[in-house]
């Protein structure tokens, strides 16, 4: 964790895609994001873990659709006009995996600079600390940079 | 092709030659008198030597040369190939392979040792003659004083790095040559391409040598040249003459060519036929061309994979078109959609056919394994293979290699008893291992069968109890007990040998087979042997599926597993607690897919049952609706869903949504465990 933080410090600014989940704002590392698409019909996978309840077809590939809201204990909202699917590519056990992530809203692609980075507070959080890489400040708001590898494993 | 690293080409070619060589050597162990085998081994060696030298593998070339020299005495019929000789020859082959693939790992000392062994086995009073002399002195054709050659190279020959002058020099080593360049092809200076070869050569070779020896000289350029060869009838004084005199005496060679015996104008190098055993002298050139007639083209495996992907996408797009056309009313669109459906399905079949490889290519590898194991364990074993022609998708062949190695090792190490035990039990001293492949519907069955002692059920049971896998005294069938062999870390071997007994293996074998959507089954008869049966699907890429609807969701059942579809009768419905179906007098357990998929909404009034089967077990699956056949392009589920076992993959339907493919084996197992639970609760 500290190492990755140090890395961010050296590179200075970090490109992120700002998405909204429920009341919170999350900053996804833009390097992970492959594309952002409109909602598509989903196929439920019976017996799957709750945070990856379904699969979708993205350009001929069947990829899992993850719901971070479940991981962070948020209520699930129905799809609205703002709902998007952010397709990200992750390394899971050494293999690249495409995963769709439902976002209640996608704000913008932006930069968060190193001075905005806050250490994850040890107390006062109702989320599992390992899901969070760090917390940054963006336009006077706190945003969460999630650790996607941990969340999806 | 041209972009490929030439060294890589050599490696590929060499690895094929090694297979030929190994196969020939092993066969030679069984049929020491077969001249064809000696020749094909020799040819492979010779080519390895030649190409090795050409690509700068000097160590390979010199070692192979020594090997060849020693082996030549076998070819001459002076030495019989004994088992010892063959073992050393195999070791030598491995050494050459190591020299090519991983030169760092080799040591001259090892190579010299092998050569010494080789020489010792073929040694006799005479010193071993170097190979060039042998070929030169090889069978003579009647009273013939030499050869008249006319060489015409393709103009780009120089660009490939071949040097015609070097070839001529090699030719001169066969005997005195008179070489006359033919210059009539040379264009005017301003039309001349500096990198092209315009010269042709007319050569008189005054040497009594085999035609093969001449062919050997041009072996690597034969696809890029025209070689016209005819015997020289009368002896001409091989004394050197001044050039002008020679030119005067010889008429223009192009115009007056004696009837050509062989004209080696061959197709492109990609269509290279595997070196086969050819009839020896005259018809050689003919036979070679016939081989090429079958025209195999070497294609990179990735290209085939890409092609398969494209076809998969095409099939999906076609399904969408068909759906769209059938919902509209335009008749001409419908006709086009049908036409495209037909084309797509035949294209799919052709593409899959192109990926099919006979399983024999895999079986060949195991002969060496058995040869070595049977020597190391001093258990003589006869190895029988059947159904080598059975074709399987190439990716499956690759995946099958490791599991089969394991099963064969097990068969020899655990299955076959030692010679004394066999004799005591009244069996032949030589054990027998059969490897067979056969088509069975849309599946391929691969069996590994030994005639050893069979599984020791009591010992497996004891071990399972010891490891706490079952309670002591639990009632289990033999079949169930044998399943413990697939349990990770389970080994009953009393001693751990270098080969087996560490308990890693059978579980890996099982997992590998199941990853291929196959199943593995064991059957054994005490004292008679064990048979392991692998059931594999024909292909991994596209299957015929049955599309069904359960609640809102649509699912695919592999059609190969479907036996029949029946309606769930009111009577079956009423007997809710039983979950058995009466199919023409047979009781078949059934699963309600609505429950498994936890579908919402109310079920359709007329529930359908799809009877699926794996091997002997039949299970009914109750669905809301049977939609119909579906060409299913299989997409694997990601790692995030690897914990979901009832689906083996996913596909994309005509409307672009994803649908899941049911894993038949898992569902059958699920149904069976339910039945057992029911039995237990009924018994209680």
Largest sheet of chain B: 5 strands, antiparallel
Count of helical regions of chain A = 3
How many strand elements of chain A?
Answer: 12
What does the radius of gyration of chain B come to?
33 Å
Approximate shape of chain A: globular
What attributes does this structure have?
heterodimer, A: 153 residues, mainly beta, six-stranded mixed sheet, three-stranded antiparallel sheet, 12 strands, 12% helix, disordered N terminus, B: 684 residues, alpha+beta, Four Helix Bundle (Hemerythrin (Met), subunit A), Alpha-Beta Plaits, Helix Hairpins, 5 domains, five-stranded antiparallel sheet, five-stranded mixed sheet, 21 helices, flat, phosphorelay sensor kinase activity (chain B), EC 2.7.13.3 (chain B)
Layout: helices, strands, pairs:
The complex is a heterodimer of chains A (153) and B (684).
Chain A: H1 2-11, E1 14-21, E2 24-29, E3 33-37, E4 43-44, E5 54-58, E6 61-66, H2 68-71, E7 84-92, E8 95-103, E9 105-112, E10 117-118, E11 132-138, E12 141-146, H3 148-151
Parallel strand pairs in A: 6-8
Antiparallel strand pairs in A: 1-2, 1-9, 3-7, 4-5, 5-6, 7-8, 10-11, 11-12
Chain B: H1 6-30, H2 35-54, H3 58-75, H4 83-101, H5 108-122, H6 131-137, E1 146-153, H7 164-174, E2 177-182, E3 200-205, H8 211-217, E4 225-232, H9 243-249, E5 262-263, H10 284-293, H11 301-327, H12 331-354, E6 356-358, H13 360-376, E7 381-386, E8 391-393, H14 394-415, H15 419-424, E9 431-440, E10 443-450, H16 457-466, H17 478-482, H18 506-515, E11 519-525, E12 529-537, E13 542-550, E14 553-558, E15 562-567, H19 570-574, E16 580-583, E17 586-592, H20 593-596, E18 608-614, E19 617-623, E20 625-633, E21 647-652, E22 658-662, H21 664-683
Parallel strand pairs in B: 7-9, 14-22, 17-19
Antiparallel strand pairs in B: 1-3, 1-4, 2-3, 4-5, 6-8, 9-10, 10-12, 11-12, 13-14, 13-20, 15-18, 16-17, 18-19, 21-22
